[in-house]
Amino acid sequence: MSQNAISFIALCVSLLFAGAFVGGEFHRQRAMKAELKAIQEEQKRIMAETAAANQNYLERKQALLAETAQLYSELDSILALKELNTRQLQGARRKVQAAHEDLALQIEALKDVLNQRKVELDPPTQ
């Protein structure tokens, strides 16, 4: 074979290898871009799920805070009613005690009057 033929064959072989290498690089770059795009889409999906979870958390937190405020308000009302009832009950107890003391004094006074007049209250027995 001639020198030109060998050079031509070597050129073709080198072009074939260069083409395979360049084709492989193009394929590798496309695969990397596709993988990068898949990663970005997965990242977007995860970010959307995270945003939805955060929104759900905030809504539930707000509902819980509102419910807690309502419960505290109800507890404050109950405490105020308890204090009012306690004051009313103490007043009623003082009135009952005063009436009891007044009645005891009236009974003692009546006993003194009866003793002075020597009247018997017991009915006659047969």
What does this structure look like?
The chain is mainly α. Helix content is 91%, strand content 0%. It is rod-shaped and about 170 Å long. The chain starts with a helix and ends in a 9-residue tail after the last helix. The relative contact order is 0.03.
Provide the residue-averaged pLDDT.
89
- What Rg is obtained from the alpha carbons, in whole angstroms? 52 Å
Query: What structural class do you assign from the helix and strand content?
Result: mainly alpha
Task: Report the total helices.
Answer: 1
Which stretches are poorly predicted, pLDDT < 50 over at least 5 residues? none
Distance between the termini: 167 Å
Outline:
rod-shaped
- Give helix % range: over 70%
Order of secondary-structure elements: H
In short:
By secondary structure, the chain is an all-alpha fold. It has one helix at residues 3-117. The model has no long low-confidence stretch (mean pLDDT 89).
